[in-house]
Amino acid sequence: MKSERNEGEEKFPKNAAGEVLVSDVDFVETYLGLEDLLKTSKVKSIGVSNFNSQQIDRILKEATVKPVVNQVECHPYLNQTKLIEFCRQKDIVVTAYSPLGSPDRPWAKPEDPSLLEEPKIKEIAKKYNKSSAQILIRFQVERGVAVIPKSVTKDRIASNINVFDFQLTPEDLATISDFDRGHEGRIIHLGWNGPNVVDHKHYPFKTPF
C-alpha cells in the first residue's frame, strides 16, 4: 500500500479503514533537516530513536553530523547488548526507555511477565535493600546506558535516582542479562498500529539489532 503523508496534524492520523497512516519520507531526509536546524544554533545536539544498526550506518554514510544518542527500548527482556556495543563503537550514547518493562502499559495482559515481579530480580533487590525498580535502573547505569524511567510521583522519582550507593556484582549482572528474549521481549513493538506500520520499509525491528 502506498504511504500517505499527513505531517503536521494529529500524532497518529488514520485513514477511513482505521489504519494508522505512515509517511513515505526517507528518514535520512528528515535527519538532514535536523542538521540544518543545528546550523541555526537553536539546537545543541541531534540524535535518533528506535534506529537499528543498519539505519544508523545509513545516517553515518549520508549525513555530516553523527547522532549524539540513539534512544531505544531497553530492559532485561530486551537487553540490546549488540546494539549498545555497535553504538559504543560509533561513539553514540544509548538511552534506555521503558527500563522497567512498562508495567503500567494499557495493553498488558494478566498473563504477561513482569520484570518487577521476577523472583531473581526481587532476590537481588533484597540483598541490597533496594526495590526491583532500582535494580533495573542500576543495571543500565553499570552498562554505561543512559536511563529514563517514567514516573509522575515525587517519592518514586526520588527513589529512581537513589541508585548510586551500591554496585551490582558481575554475577548479578549476568543473572539480569539472562532474562533477554531478543525481539520476543520487545514491548513497544508498535504492532497495534496495524500492518501499515509493521510492513513499512523503514520499520526498524526486523533486523537482528
TrEMBL record:
InterPro entries: AKR (IPR020471), Aldo/ket_reductase_CS (IPR018170), NAD(P)_OxRdtase_dom_sf (IPR036812), NADP_OxRdtase_dom (IPR023210). One of its GO terms (molecular function) is oxidoreductase activity. It holds the Pfam family Aldo_ket_red. Residues 25-179 form the NADP-dependent oxidoreductase domain. It comes from the Eukaryota. This is NADP-dependent oxidoreductase domain-containing protein.
